[in-house]
Amino acid sequence: MRKLAVILAAFTLTLLIGCGNNNKSTENTNTSANTGNTATAAPDAVTSASVVDNGEAFKKAISKDGTWIAATLKDLSFSEELVVDGQFINKEEPARKIALYTQDADHNITNSFKLTAPKLTIRSENARIQGGTFVGDVYVEADGFAVVNATIEGNIYFSDAKYQATYTAADQGKVTGVTEVKK
């Protein structure tokens, strides 16, 4: 138990240091439908990483009321659909990260984890799955989805070709199934 607490503390500290000082997050980034102008509301909250070790905490972390980073400390498995929702800002850009790993002070991955669900829907702009494995199908309904140093054991379906056009797989990111538009 003591070893887990030390690892958790080191991981949390590393994430906070590694993310820099620009971790302000806004949930209310509104686009005016009438004028076409983008208006950004004042930040409602300042958030940091949500480091979790159970299903309920993970679901809250990826919700619209969660944090811009949801990091797990172990394998998690769900029988229901998961939804990554809400708009968060990191370093003045929309961002969302599911971190399926722990790292040391030098940002080297020390453990990778597996997230399993029948379906993961991405509704947050610039969301990424990083450092582990997601088992299930991913449905993308937002721009900028990325798989970074991670594996999707399943398919990625985009609700529109414009979302597929902004998709990237980087640093050994891979998908074992199809990557296609499916309406």
Structural class given helices, strands, pairing? alpha/beta
N-to-C SSE series?
HEEEEEHEEEEEEEEEEEEEEHEEE
Percent strand: 35-45%
The count of strands amounts to: 22
In short:
By secondary structure, the protein is an alpha/beta fold. It is 16% helix and 41% strand. The protein contains three helices and 22 strands.
What does this structure look like?
Helix content is 16%, strand content 41%. It has three helices and 22 strands. The protein has helices spanning 2-18, 55-62, 161-164, and strands at residues 24-25, 29-31, 38-40, 45-46, 50-52, 69-72, 76-77, 82-84, 89-90, 93-94, 96-99, 101-103, 109-112, 114-122, 127-130, 133-140, 146-148, 151-153, 156-158, 168-170, 174-175, 179-181. A hairpin with a 6-residue loop joins strand 2 (29-31) and strand 3.
SSE diagram, text form:
Elements: H1 2-18, E1 24-25, E2 29-31, E3 38-40, E4 45-46, E5 50-52, H2 55-62, E6 69-72, E7 76-77, E8 82-84, E9 89-90, E10 93-94, E11 96-99, E12 101-103, E13 109-112, E14 114-122, E15 127-130, E16 133-140, E17 146-148, E18 151-153, E19 156-158, H3 161-164, E20 168-170, E21 174-175, E22 179-181
Parallel strand pairs: 5-6, 6-11, 7-14, 8-14, 11-15, 14-16, 15-17, 16-18, 16-19, 17-20, 18-21, 19-22
Antiparallel strand pairs: 1-4, 2-3, 9-10, 12-13
